[in-house]
What does this fold into?
Amino acid sequence: MQHEAGHFLIAYLVGILPKGYTISSLDALQKEGSLNIQAGTAFVDFEFQEEVNTGKVSATTLNKFSCIALAGVSTEYLIYGFAEGGLDDIRKLDLLLKGLGFTQKKADSQVRWSLLNTVLLLRRHEAARAKLAEAFSMGKSVGSCIDIIENSIDVSDL
It folds into this structure.
């Protein structure tokens, strides 16, 4: 739950609108009627998909995607001191960077930059993430979750 709250919060903060979330396979079964869906957060990311399909992803888009991809693992680490989930998130980011022709050195640099910025955002907005995780546990709608973020963040913090 904390992991997905991290993805959702970071996506919203970097300007990618979340459109849904599932917190477990059981949640996916109840919401989507399928066990083939993993826990996760879905986004309104048409621009990103278009850029990936052309093979040319802008630096801004890549930075946003990288931060979102690392948000779950970062959240777990900040809360628990270690991360159990997120291997799939890291694999997806790694595949994207390789697909874009990044050298290992350049990929490592992208991951470090993204991790630093993601952790800074998560620390700054810890209260919003905690409230968001609580909302997830109650099955709140995406709109309610966005409202929670909006009401939890001090405008002067942006």
